[in-house]
Amino acid sequence: MKVIKSVSDMAVKASRLVQGGKRISFVPTMGNLHEGHLSLMRMAKPMADILVVSIFVNPLQFEPGSDFDTYPRTFQEDLKKCEDLGVDIVFAPMESDLYPEGFQTMVEVSEVSKGLCGDFRPGHFKGVATVVLKLFNIVKPRVAVFGEKDYQQLCVIRQMVKDLNLDIQIVGHPTVREPDGLAMSSRNQYLSPEERVRAALLYKLLKEAQERFEKGERRAQALITHVQTGLAKDPKIAVEYVSIRERDNLKTIDVVDKPAVMALAVHIGKTRLIDNIFLTS
Amino acid sequence: MKVIKSVSDMAVKASRLVQGGKRISFVPTMGNLHEGHLSLMRMAKPMADILVVSIFVNPLQFEPGSDFDTYPRTFQEDLKKCEDLGVDIVFAPMESDLYPEGFQTMVEVSEVSKGLCGDFRPGHFKGVATVVLKLFNIVKPRVAVFGEKDYQQLCVIRQMVKDLNLDIQIVGHPTVREPDGLAMSSRNQYLSPEERVRAALLYKLLKEAQERFEKGERRAQALITHVQTGLAKDPKIAVEYVSIRERDNLKTIDVVDKPAVMALAVHIGKTRLIDNIFLTS
User: Which of A34, A37, A124, A226 is catalytic?
Assistant: First the structure.
């Protein structure tokens, strides 16, 4: 396994691979790799000839006052996991190399970035779209895999790829969960043991809403109210949003008569958690 | 010469060429080709194996109330000129194919888009950056040639390419001029015969300022005042701006002690004209 830290070295290496007829698959991460990330890599590995994983905690996507400084960084452990999994190249750029002085270009995907997390994390999806486009241009993948836990992010990237005519297949991987249903996330380790127990409620309620949908409930508000009521019973959980949107374009929907996604964000103590579930008949 | 109108056909064709080891050079245009465009093509032709010219009047870069509807469209004549010049592929996409329903991604290059034309054409450079990035992704060039007449545009594109890690060489071509010095532009044909005579004043004054600079004048304001005073003598010319900026990053400059560009924009009757000249010792 190669570890490349220089942007220009990675760009040259990728160009040579592509010119040599190799297909690159790509999993961008912020490191602190858990089973969710590893599942994306296992999915990406057989989809091309060379698997590249990037590790970069992207300052552009952390809104002011968020956890950029304290975000868990575990580079050596991450490298070991990548090596064990058969990653070919880990690309771990320096911030000053990816955003040199004078950097000033941002990519904005307007519609699908609105609502949901977009309302609570101003600038977040601009930061995500910009770094992902830069990484795509450097790594030159034919296919890239993203987790469905960050579902709005996945939609933003799909829309960007379509709108900017990038020849990259974007693949979503189903959310990987802990035994009690909590979606895996690097931020779960911020939870105290007591908060960790409470956090299982998120997926439990999403599953209940999905079951009600499958039994015939099509009114979005009824399903949302079920989840909101359930969350309100725990005084330690503060709800940011519970919402149902069209699955493919995140447009608001009152009657769930087409494929949809139910998404939520909450704070438990100081930790912000998100999750979602598909509603498809 | 191939004429390709479909975005996906062009993307597939370009991919095949690149995979076959061919290098593509690219001249994006809005058509209505004049000697300025043809000079860019002659420069681009020997720089790669395949010369692609795009013809697309990009609605995103026309601010409200500007000349999008009346912009001269001369497709058949343009094709003839491209064929005579040895262009390999003319890419002439439909608006609905480049911007399908739901299109929502924009690229913003913030700093160099400010001031100069950026102050008078809100959204213009966002539209330019977005369409050029799309065209680059579709056409997949190794080198692209732009005219220096639209100097701020050239700076925006250079900055975008650098910031987004695109592996494309951006080449500027010196402004091509009429015998009396007027910079060639499709918009020159909007001028009445009398206005056309007056328009020669722009380059005459820029040259005078350049001569004063070469004789030792380093105060930006003195050079600007010379041009402004000269333009003010013609009551039919309305000045938008006369400005001197650093040549490479368009930062404002009071003392011309590094490579600089003097740029101006005026209206003569209903026609907006721009021009610029380098100040380098």
Answer: A37
Task: Give which of B121, B113, B195, B190 is closest to B155, Cα–Cα.
Answer: B113
CATH of B186-275, one of 3.40.50.720, 3.90.1640.30, 3.30.200.20, 3.30.1300.10: 3.30.1300.10
Query: What is the side-by-side order of every strand in the sheet holding B271-279?
Result: B237-246, B260-268, B271-279
Q: Which is it for strands A89-91 and A2-4: parallel, antiparallel or unpaired?
A: parallel
> Is A124 an active-site residue?
no
Domain borders along chain A are 2-173, 186-275
Is A107 touching B (CB cutoff 8 A)?
Answer: yes
pLDDT digits over A30-41, tens only? 999 999 999 999
- The Cα–Cα gap between B262 and B110 comes to 20
DSSP state letters, A182-194: PBP-GGGGGS-HH
Q: Does B134 touch chain A (CB under 8 A)?
A: yes
Q: Is the pLDDT of residue B281 over 90?
A: no
Residues of B in contact with A106 (CB under 8 A): 107-108, 110
In this complex, which of A103, A107, A138 lies closest to B105 when CB atoms are compared? A107
ipTM attached to this prediction: 0.97
Please tell me whether the overall predicted TM-score, pTM, comes out greater than 0.90 for this model: yes
Contact A85, A42 (CB under 8 A): yes
Cα separation of A203 and A149, whole Å? 11
B262: helix, strand or coil = strand
Closest residue of chain A to B164, computed from CA coordinates: A134
Who among B11, B103, B159 is closest to A163 (CB)? B103
pLDDT in tens, B85-130: 999 999 999 999 999 999 999 999 999 999 999 999 999 999 999 9
Q: Which of residues 166-225 of A touch B (CB under 8 A)?
A: 166-167
Homologous superfamily (CATH) of A2-173 is: HUPs (3.40.50.620)
Name the nearest CA neighbour of B212 among B201, B222, B200. B222
* Contact yes or no for A149/A275 (Cβ under 8 A): yes
The closest alpha carbon to A26, from A74, A91, A76, A79, belongs to: A91
Q: Calculate the CA dihedral of residues A216, A219, A223, A225 and round it to 10 degrees.
A: -140
